[in-house]
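Appendix B. Worked example

We walk through a single record from start to finish. Start with the input: the chain for Malto-oligosyltrehalose synthase, Raineyella fluvialis, length 757.
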Amino acid sequence: MRTPSSTYRLQITGEFTLRDATAMIGYLRDLGVGALYLSPVLQSNDGSEHGYDCVDPTTIDAQRGGEEAWAELVEAAHAAGIGIVVDIVPNHLGVAEPDQNPSWWSVLKEGKDSPYACWYDIDWSRYPILLPVLGEDRDEHLTLVVTDGEAQLDYYGHRYPVADGTWEPGDSAAAVHGRQHYRLISWRRGDTEITYRRFFSVTTLAGLRQEDPQVFTATHERIARWIAEGQVDGLRVDHPDGLRDPGGYFVRLRELAPDAWIVGEKILERDEQLPTWPIQGTSGYDAMFDAGAVFLDPQAEKQFSRIYTSITGDKVGIADHVLEGKLTAAYDLLEAERRRIARLAPEIEQEPLESALAEIAARFEVYRSYLPHGDGYLVAAERAAAEARPDLAETIGQISGRLHDRTDEVACRFQQLCGAVMAKGVEDTAYYRYSRFIALNEVGGDPGTFGISTDEFHRRLATRQAHWPDSMTSLSTHDTKRSEDVRARLNVLSEIGDIWGPFAQGVVDRMDIANRSLAYLLAQTFIGAAPIARERMHAYATKAMREASDETSWTDPNVEFEHEVHAAIDRAYDDPDTVELMRTVLGLVARPGWSNSLSQKLVQLTMPGVPDVYQGTELWDESLVDPDNRRPVDFAACAELLRRSDAPPLDASGAAKLWVTSRALRLRRERPDLFTGYTPLYAEGPAAEHLVAFDRGGAITLATRLPYGLTHQGGWRDTVLHLDGTYRGQLQGLEWSGTVALSTILVDYPVGLLVRQ
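Next comes the structure step. The output line below is what the pipeline stores for this chain.
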């Protein structure tokens, strides 16, 4: 198994291409990176910033550098001893511009007779294919264009094919349109009438039928060549929950890549266990929660609940927000998906059946089941739905048997529906509505769990070592709601509730936004992401309030409310009193925020698993949700700081974080023998609770938790750690043995990385 010592995620775009990545190989080698982890690089839609809308899975994206640049990168990386991991997208292809996707173009032109008809998850019982693309003008601007004898339909520059024999000179566009295998309909009908499986509620991404071996082979041809030619060492699989049979998919992928390191973008809830798939683990959201929650003070939960309720008036807990968000997603956003499932059971009255499916899906505690794995979650969801809606109890009983039968089409599609309901209802709705403590409102997070104890932390990491020692670990990704350093700084607030409460009350009152939960979210964002430019804050606020869908939304923007919010943000920047309040709080949390950042970073880099570093997060990074976290990184500045030969001070430059990151990555790459086990370590003394420590089998990690309280209680004082030998520090180069005072180890930095001599 070609398991990398670590990975470094790069977002490859039209502005930062594969050639730009090649130019970074020397820096990544010096940083200590084991493998370069690339965002999707197969041909995507023109202008795509992310690459998840692949239109041709057989070739490298020309706008990202193309085949020649890919070959150069592979050669340079392998020459430097760096592996390559690629993010692949098996669930869907991009269909926003049909003329850019050869397979979709063929399906639209030839219908069921297309050789690609089996590729897409299309409901052929409802014909023609419905494409929700028309604006409010309907088809008034639909025209027929003939070039070199070939006709196409054009709608504001978007081209659609015309089947052979369906047009003659002089035909109107409307007449020709009516003869095609597809119909262009209003974009507003996408949530209710779409006839192909999509990615969540995104109609420009059409689902693939990877359960068909022929489709798998055809769409993985380029990936198979990567593996056969030794170009790629690992694969990160995007959104396996969207597939009909994720387990079967991973079996085929393992057969295609028997020696590759494979992880899946699987979000685990609470103590949910990953199915026994033939992969190394997840893409790290579960580890992100573990590495961050231990640096939050659980004792502050009641106080922060009181602050939140007092300021916002929101007395609804996260569980109720989640249920409301999921019900909204199931009933409104994903109505077409519910209807498709219900039609598979015509023996049951359709309207109550559709409602029953929505109610069960909304009460599903995890993203989906993988029958028979996860059947217990389905039983619990059915019971909860029947109790909440006794009028649907009989219908739930009628459909229950089919939902539990993994060979039944109803069960297969319901599992896919559950994942979409969870993602849209929780991540994209509830997490923007419930703002008690937004550092917890993260992908794979749990806003209802206000931190974890060190004992719980050690239990989780021991379990990880025992069952998934090669799973990826992450702190920031392209999908996180806020970066690791924003969350680390926010965690300090849990130590200063008496100061934070009055400050937040003042900021929210001054903003004077009708939705006070949103105002409270923005108040936390001001502190967590400071200093944040005004335009970035405005952009974030737009996304946050539209995702919440309380007062406004993406589909029906409330211009008046949005103007109110943006005016409030401007007042926060322009009002001297508000600015002074923010400066005061920032002065309190800045240095302990750096401590939390270094602590969780070192923990993530050395804990069981393969650590990933998201681009630029080796320095301080105050990014928010995408596209903010895809801003260009100043790699030249990173390289310049990395050339330092001595430990830098802990200051605003971020050089200390780069120093800690590079020393940890280099050690993992050069001495993997030091990271083969997991033993919790505990300090003794008056500040023992402020230490998180573990021994990986020769490499000891020391990290400070709750640094604000530690400082105000007099520091480490007589707190000691017992070492079972002589150890050398990798950050300062000093040696210690026996019983050592923590005040002598954790001097310049709040963290230590020790190696047994």
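Two observations about the output. The longest helix spans residues 576-606. The domain at 98-207 is CATH 3.30.1590.10 (Maltooligosyl trehalose synthase, domain 2).
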